[in-house]
Amino acid sequence: MIAGAIAVAGILALGGAPVSAQDQVGDFRLSGVALQQSTYQGDPALKLTMPSSAYQDPAREKLADRNFMAWLPLDFSDGTIEVEVASDLAADAPDYARGFIGLAYRIDAQGRFENIYLRPTNSSAPDQVRRNHTVQYAAYPDFRFDMLRSQFPEKYETYADIAAGRWIHMRLVVEGSQAQLFLDRSPNPAFIVNDMKLSPGQRGGVGIWLESGTVAHFRNLRVIPKD
Asked: Per-residue DSSP letters for 78-95?
């Protein structure tokens, strides 16, 4: 179990000691994804992908959030998570792909987790309703985006001025049942969830999450537990 503040990719230290690129990748547990050391726009980063065979087919199934991610086996409950993320659409991305990328946290032994993620291509869509779906909260497996959107319209998603193909800084502050997301180092939260759906005592790992049609990159992942 990794304890204390950590950073991953870019400048990385575990317990204050520098770690090799190979060890960086090896720190993560993988759920349906591939992770490799790479570069993005000339900067060192970790590249995260999922196989096209795992893309959801809306003709056969209802689209819903799943558990594709690379995650660190931490014991995180409250605290701050920071990361820079960037996403592009894969060459074979389905029409509904949005560059889905975000943070999963409090990942427990049963695979339950909270999740705040981005749909970067929605930010500049000509459809205002789609623009309003740029940032999303979900809790896996019982509170996925489709159920939350149906039962609580507009409460668990919002607009943000972001884009695919560029680095986006995410800072997530978690305490009890509340999560606040700050984007691109703004001092003001872009998104607030006051009633996260899992127990306030939920705790566990932290990871980078993605969905169908995304080629994801991330760097400088820092987890600073409050306790």
From this structure: SEEEEEEEEEEE-TT--T
